[in-house]
Amino acid sequence: MYSFEIVRPKSVADAVSALGEEEAQALGGGQTLIPSLKQRLAAPAVLVSLASIDEIKGVSSSGGAVTIGGGTPHGTVARDVAASYPALAALAGNIGDPAVRSRGTVGGSLANNDPAACYPAAALASGATIVTSNREIAADDFFEGLFTTALEDGEIITAVKFRIPEKAAYIKFEQPASRFALVGVFVAKFADGVRVAVTGASEDGVFRWTEAEAALSGDFSAAALDGLAVGADGLMTDLHGSAAYRAHLIGVLTKRAVTQAG
Amino acid sequence: MPKDHGIGAAQKRREDVRFLTGAGKYTDDINVYGQTYCHFLRSDVAHGKITSIDTSAAEAMPGVVRIFTGKDFEGIGGLPCGWQVTDKNGDPMQEPPHPVLAQGKVRHVGEPICAVVAETLEQARDAAEAIELEIEELPAVVDMRGALEGGSARVHDDLPGNLCYDWQFGSDTATVEAAFASAAHVTTLELVNNRLVANPMEPRVALAEYARAGDESTLYTTSQNPHVIRLLMGAFVLGIPEHKLRVVAPDVGGGFGTKIFHYAEEAFVTFAARQINRPVKWTSTRSEAFMSDAHGRDHVTKIELALDADNNFIGLRTDTLANMGAYLSTFASSVPTWLHGTLMAGNYKTPAIQVNVKAVFTNTVPVDAYRGAGRPEATFQLERLVDKAARELGVDPIKLRRQNFIDSFPYATPVAVEYDTGNYVATMDKLEEMIDIPGFAARRAESEAKGKLRGFGVNCYIEACGIAPSNLVGQLGARAGLYDAATVRVNATGSISVMVGAHSHGQGHETAFPQVVADMLGIDESMIEIVHGDTSKIPFGMGTYGSRSLAVCGSAMVRATEKIINKAKKIAAHLMEASAGDIELKDGMFTVAGTDKSVAWGDVTLAAYVPHNYPLTEIEPGLEETAFYDPANFTYPAGAYACEVEVDPETGKVTIERFAAADDFGNVVNPMIVEGQVHGGLAQGIGQALLETCVYDADGQLLSASYMDYAMPRASDVPFYKVDHSCATPCTHNPLGVKGCGEAGAIGSPPAVVNAVLDALNHAGHDVAHIDMPVSPHRVWQAMQG
Amino acid sequence: MTKVTMTVNGKTVSKEVRGNMLMTEFLRDELHLTGTHVGCDTSQCGACNIHVNGANVKGCTIFAAECDGAEIATIEGQANADGSLNVIQQAFQDHHGLQCGFCTPGMVMSAAALLKETPKPTEAEIRHYLEGNICRCTGYHNIVKAIMAASGQDVSSIAAE
């Protein structure tokens, strides 16, 4: 690693101010950033650790939504939303491994927007609102492509408000080495319609499968998806699967998610 | 009643206490006063000409002690290859120089070009970034078939066609052609044995120090065979005589073959420590390991089997391309030849067998032995082929195997080796009992009810372990003897230190070896300790690989212990005023046969060191004996393995539902350890079959270069295994009757897995003849698409 | 440099650390607690697992500066007060849950965290929990068995062989 200092602000305001310094970079749980620092892929002068900011940790529910502090680790989410939003809890409980879940945070995951990460699918399918240090951003406007989001420099995700669907499920088909999603599909049924978000598959990161949403909004059953398929154009091809295979998996996993959601 | 001590007892491992409490001492845990840190600047292109290296700016960076380049190694030896293969025309293999640091050209991604030695590791890394390096990129040679074509780029400029050797072995061409000409059926299969990375969990580390006063070098290194490193590095690379070079391999975190070889990094730190007169340490990162540890496997084969009208195997012919990578690693040349061709008979009495192997240089990391080394490649070809033949002929694959089993021993194969003993029917019978074949139909129905396919696959295997004897392997090109050595040092109080040439890096020698000596002497195991891994403490040793430790080094230990007993009986005879021929040793007591006269073990050992009442004119004081043991033959563990898989027809994902292994390892010293060895081998074989592979792109970039893309087996990828080693036919030529168990699991499991997947698919109506490993979900899905 | 103070295996330690010093470096180089191992650089192998305020954490993916004020447990502090192996360690020895020993410290720390959370885990729960602990030697059979045994479950019916 290149050399840098670490600061540990205790409030969002102090963190924002620290991030205003030259070459400052936010450090969430570090489960993605630290390995990339080891490879010398980043050279911050200061890392601003968000781990000591209590105001961005924790889970609360009200009015059909669950709000998760941006600094809440996956393991806590898996435990604390199990009753209010089981599909989200299950997703959180399957990210990485237990040690990664002790440190990695929902805010860090969304800000990184890895094209194979799980949380972006949950946020997009839930129509979540990403609350930052200075505004609220709808999930539909948040994800802008591979590792790219609507966040501005120095902007911190303080919380994510997930609308709680009537029914939901997330099915992840794991890439055998990294155990990230080779394809992951999150299906969420709300009173006003169904949302389907797909991660791991597209060259542009997480996306909504709108044809499936339309079909499922009329008939929330796996059968409603018969004949629907995502085209392979724009999907990723890598060591672990071709675009065509990913396109196929999207269809399979979406049906399974619908069935599991019940 | 299971034994509670000695040979055959499942003793808990004494080494576990330090490993479980964080008190193990691995190479990276060693730090010495004044130590510097080394970072290698490695090539990021697969093939190129180094046009300039400017280290001046880097030299001036903080903390830099010295920067080394290939120039510093001009006139110093390159890394040697330990086995010379002679090709089918009688010519020696091509053996291009293998420099410690690149000379003029780089030939694979990861090849070390410069080494920065600095006060801290980060300073060394900083300085490495400041080295100005210009490389003129050349076309990369990646595909083996392309490499052999005349127009291909050359990995080594004076080597057109990139051919290391073209080797032919076994029956003559006319004999094999006659067999095929008379065949009622011929089955042909083309397959790839996927390139793997051994991935012991401890990355390699090398730490060297130099004592100028005595001109003595010490290398601490993560090695399976410290004496071999001392020999190769001292004699062939750096010109340091043995008495001035100590090599220590302390606790080593797994090897699996990849820590046999002599590597550039350990030669470099030893050289550099002498140059700068300070200790130099290098610790590999996992990312570095992927591009600097020798890889394994990587064969492409066409194999054909001729059967007569009664389904007897009458001829076998193979044509293999074996990837050597950019340079010949220490034992690379022997793997596709003598460790592979000699096993092509498998468990079957095929009378005519011819093996053809072309070894090819490519711009990839060197390839060498990995758990099984040549024998998994042979087993996979043969056992996939037999399964395919069974499917083509519409016969039961177990029945076809049984019909062709070798059933009388000793058996001389057409591929040079003589199996001393075995019972392939017994292991197959045991396997069938373990896996519950009658229940398979019901299990398949259960899977189908869940929308899954279920398949059953079986295979046999034979391996040749304890590579020997020296005079034979010498004729075959080995540049080393393959004996081993042990010293049994009995102390005055009767406690014993046994210095062994084998190295334990997970195999539990510290527990199992004392069981043997304790049994022979009738004393408690706790009185015996094993010393290994330090050339200054042990007489000599060829190390641990090829499942050889107990069969070869254990035999040396037995011979040395026999010498101890012989001498101790003479002492006891003197003490009891009897004839040595009348002395019996039992339960640690020396007795005069037929009398009640006895002396205890401790009385005799004390007399040896306090020889007041002692036959000094006949025997020397002291009680210490050394033996070197050079076996008469290989040992031939064999067995039968079976696997049941479920396949998700929608995603192609394969899960292992059941796995059973029936092995014949001959006699077993510690069944708990033996079973653990099999478990570990099975996971590596299942890993090869389903998960692991190295992928290079056309430019020679390694795409599977970390655990993010190289799929290591995890706990959730494997089931509880059923293993059995009760069908034992003891080895006929070593004193313990043992055969070796370390590699069996990795050799015997890949074909069973692939055979099971193909059974599942074909039963479900998919006409799929073969899928290359790893049988990933993507590949299974593609196969089902037709 | 930042000054950090933390409790490691019950003892308070204070040190000046570089911002980029990982806990693995802090433990191994500063405190000479070399039982915590480094097996990869992509945060996957788990040989470095330690407990930070009771949570199972990869020591190679957390900075020492982030552990200021924390309670740290490492493999060196796991044995019983009299030095004997604790229940998990003893089960690993009894059931041959280790070979080369390199992944073992991380395995034991993960097993301890699992059993605190789930006192009687099923085989599937154990295998799932060990997703981030890679072992190359044992094939996992005896590790899973040892953890089941450590949790007081009868493992005699698991293919002993």
TrEMBL record, chain A:
PROSITE patterns referenced in this protein's UniProt entry, alphabetically = FAD_PCMH
Q: Which Pfam families match?
A: FAD_binding_5
Q: Which InterPro entries match?
A: CO_DH_flav_C, CO_DH_flav_C_dom_sf, Diverse_Substr_Oxidored, FAD-bd_PCMH, FAD-bd_PCMH-like_sf, FAD-bd_PCMH_sub1, FAD-bd_PCMH_sub2, Mopterin_DH_FAD-bd
| Residue ranges of domain FAD-binding PCMH-type in the record | 1-167
Q: Where is the signal peptide?
A: none
Lineage top rank: taxon: Bacteria
Q: Which UniProt keywords apply?
A: FAD, Flavoprotein, Oxidoreductase
The answer to keyword Zinc applying to this record is: no
UniProt KW Magnesium keyword: no
Name the UniProt record assigns to this protein: FAD binding domain-containing protein
- Write down the species: Salipiger mangrovisoli
UniProtKB/TrEMBL annotation, chain B:
Keywords annotated in UniProt: Molybdenum, Oxidoreductase
Q: The Aldehyde oxidase/xanthine dehydrogenase a/b hammerhead domain covers which part of the protein?
A: 21-139
Question: Which Gene3D superfamilies does the annotation name?
Answer: Aldehyde oxidase/xanthine dehydrogenase, a/b hammerhead, Aldehyde oxidase/xanthine dehydrogenase, molybdopterin binding domain
User: Pfam families attached here?
Assistant: Ald_Xan_dh_C, MoCoBD_1, MoCoBD_2
The protein's name is: Xanthine dehydrogenase family protein molybdopterin-binding subunit
Q: Which species is this UniProt entry from?
A: Salipiger mangrovisoli
The record lists the lineage as: Bacteria, Pseudomonadati, Pseudomonadota, Alphaproteobacteria, Rhodobacterales
TrEMBL record, chain C:
Question: What keywords appear on the UniProt entry?
Answer: 2Fe-2S, Iron, Iron-sulfur, Metal-binding, Oxidoreductase
Q: Which residues form the 2Fe-2S ferredoxin-type domain?
A: 2-78
InterPro entries reported in the protein's UniProt record: 2Fe-2S-bd (IPR002888), 2Fe-2S-bd_dom_sf (IPR036884), 2Fe-2S_ferredoxin-like_sf (IPR036010), 2Fe-2S_ferredoxin-type (IPR001041), Beta-grasp_dom_sf (IPR012675), Diverse_Oxidoreductases (IPR051452)
* Coiled-coil residue windows: none
- Annotated Pfam families: Fer2, Fer2_2
Give yes or no: UniProt keyword Cell cycle: no
Q: Matching SUPFAM superfamilies, A to Z?
A: 2Fe-2S ferredoxin-like, CO dehydrogenase ISP C-domain like
Instruction: State if Lyase is listed as a keyword.
Output: no
PANTHER family documented for this protein: OXIDOREDUCTASE WITH IRON-SULFUR SUBUNIT
What is the designated name of this protein?
A: (2Fe-2S)-binding protein
